[in-house]
Amino acid sequence: MKEIVVIGAGKIGGAIAVMLAETGDYKVTVTDRDQAQLGKLDSHPAVRGAIVDITDKEALVGLLRGKFAVLSAAPFHLTGKIAEAALAASVHYLDLTEDVATTKKVEELSKGANVAFIPQCGLAPGFISIVANHLAQRFDSLDSVRMRVGALPQYPSNALNYNLTWSTDGLINEYIEPCEAIVEGKLVTVPAMEEREEFSLDGVTYEAFNTSGGLGTLAKTLEGRVRTMNYRTIRYPGHQAIIKALLNDLNLKNRRDVLKDLFEHALPATMQDVVVVFVTVCGWKDGRYLQETYANKVYSSVVAGKKMSAIQVTTAAGITTILDLLAAGRLPQTGFIRQEEVALADFLNNRFGRVYDPEALRLKQAV
Fold first, then answer.
1. Is 100 exposed, middle or buried (CB count within 10 Å of its CB: 0-12, 13-18, 19+)?
2. Which of 16-25, 62-71, 93-102, 236-245 has the lowest mean pLDDT?
3. Of 28, 191, 235, 313, which has the maximum CB count within 10 A?
4. How far apart, in whole angstroms, are the C-alpha atoms of residue 19 and residue 32?
5. DSSP string over 288-332
6. What is the helix (H) or strand (E) element at residue 62, kind and residue range?
7. Are residues 20 and 4 in contact, defined by beta-carbon separation less than 8 angstroms?
8. Using one digit for the tens of pLDDT, what is the confidence trace for 60-98?
9. Residue 304 φ/ψ region, left for φ over 0, alpha for ψ in the -120 to 50 degree band, beta for the rest
10. 11-22 and 310-327 helices cross at what angle (nearest 10)?
């Protein structure tokens, strides 16, 4: 039984803990500085809570020492401190961050490390990078890679057509920070909330626009090999225009605390959500210009005996799958590991990764 530390006792951290504990292969310590958050954890003999202040490096390193890995489900601005503690304690490090600066810091820390540093293990970045790289490998040469992901309410009922489904801080960061993209073969920075487009899937119309962090490390991996590559967040039509008014016209992009307060007191959370994943790759194979597309929807469901939202399921399954592959020796054990180094087949065949497999889900529902 491998001992794991999960940082953050929120919805994602709690989901990770129960999914790991239910296997019987992991013993999990969940840490948070808030006792009330720890008190909300599901009771399980393989899960215990511990109050630790992440900013207290000595205490955090002491907790991590001797463990197999630490998984960060903490806010993005704290993730770098956890990576530093992981290096000091010589434990494997995995996180869910979409923050570009944090990932660069993790990459620097990983140089010469005797343990693995694996950032961006969630949905986007994370699973979507694995899918995009899998499709890209089918071509002799690439033209475009377009990655689209959205966590949406199944039943939108307000002008934003949106409910809170995950970290408010992470959401705001994606809406404000600059975005990476490849344009005419070069890695560039483009503004968030721009380049809106519309598309339809299963008869439903969506909009998509630039947000920060979704490309992950795949942008550098494919730079010089693809003409166009971008990541955009999926929403129902009308969302982008209102958010841009809040950010720009009311200048809330410079008052994140006010924007967070508005979101958390005006937008209700929901467990009835759907995660939409849509990846399209175009290129040449055997002299022909072809397109390959991956489209998938994941709904809220019962996982490890617990009702979870779609964003909980997909995010927690992302990091637990990577941990499982690492523990099984299916991934390198030292240094910096990119999501695109993970084989899609290995991911979907994993006991956690199967939640992304629509065929497996249909069979489960049929039984």
1. buried
2. 93-102
3. 313
4. 18
5. EEEEEEEEEEEE-EEETTEEE-HHHHHHHHHHHHHHHHHHTT-S-
6. helix 57-64
7. yes
8. 999 999 999 999 999 888 889 999 999 999 999 999 988
9. left
10. 50
